[in-house]
Here is the input.
Amino acid sequence: MDAVMDRQTLAAFVDGALSPEDSAGVVMHLADHPEDAAHVDALMELNALLGEAYAAPLREPAPERIVTTILGPAARKTGETAVAGGAIRAGRSDPRGGWRRRLGRSRRAAVAALLAAAVAVFAVVLDPGRFGEPVQILSAPPSVDADLRAALETAPSGPVGTETPQRITLVGTFLDKTGQPCREYELLDPEAMALTQGVACRSGDGEWLTEVSVASRIDPAADRDAFVPASGAAGDPEALDRALDRLGAGMTLSPAEERTLIASWGR
Amino acid sequence: MRALESRFQRDLVELVPRLRRFAYALCGTTDMADDLVQAACERALRNASVFQPGTRMDSWMFRIIQNLWLDDRRRNKVRGHQIDPDMMAISDDGRGAQMAEDRATLEKVRARVDQLPDDLRLVLVLVTIEGRSYREAADELGIPIGTVMSRLSRARATLLPMMRTPDSRSRTWTQ
Here is the structure.
């Protein structure tokens, strides 16, 4: 078993600076190296904190004095329109922007890289109605398997140490618009080179149900030209975004909030 | 020409929230950040004719902000704000005040970033807050990519001990 991975490689992984192949290698390394996984987790948490520490300006309209500087006093009226436009856009994109930010852009980038390397999509996308219509599961049981259920119920966000061939990573926890707790997860099956990304939500009686699940096969040998753009057919990665939108996913919970929530389920 | 000019101005207004975030991370206070953004916009408008439409306005503006900031730092060698020692010792065993705890954590992050040497801080902000790739950060700062990585890891080495609170220790997932 190879030893601890060097810190700059781990940082590059977190910053999304590795090739898809190298990222996949790090993901697999982390599952067997808790100390490196802890370091990656700390880096991701730090990135998320840094993003949040300076996020205030993105939620505010541009200050009038700056807009006036740019557009000139004569253009004030237009200026106001422009500012309002900017603010509305920022506001609208904020829940998703926030969600992404808290998830860690890095991890997203790594996953995007993995997805980019996917050539064959073999599983069904479970995407309950696009317009928030009654949930219609296309195939596969909506309830999650025992390992995933145990992880969802008890583990903090981060890679989950399990004995099973599937490597579980909990990406983040959030409350949907009805206040129901939901968690985004990834299942990596290194043998099958399969990656499943999904969101499951916990009902009042403690049942975990899959809201969306997108599976793709990773082919590290895939040639660059064969990469499928994120918006293309590669397992319809947008299904995940649509599901997050439909659920009204806000900011992910902080580690402390998440801990409190998980503790409350144990009671 | 007129249309081009107003397009330039519109694009600039659109960028303001991101410029303010960048400046905020560099200056540590929103007031100073707004002064900096305003000065940068003034400079950009004076030099609008040298801006090449079709190139990245954000990179261009970030470079103006970063140069103004560095100039200013060189002029007054005084540090932005001092860390309040009490702030660093905040304990949070009460779970009831999570919002306050979160605010305090973010305040601590900003205080630590404020203490970083300018060159480390600039790289950290470009990569972790602005999402620049290592290559882009290297190009924008005119330094080799290896220097970006080593500055980044020095900056993080300063900030990471902050994460080793009882909070994060309890986050180990391999029990």
Remarks:
- Confidence is low (pLDDT under 50) at residues 78-97, 165-175 of chain B.
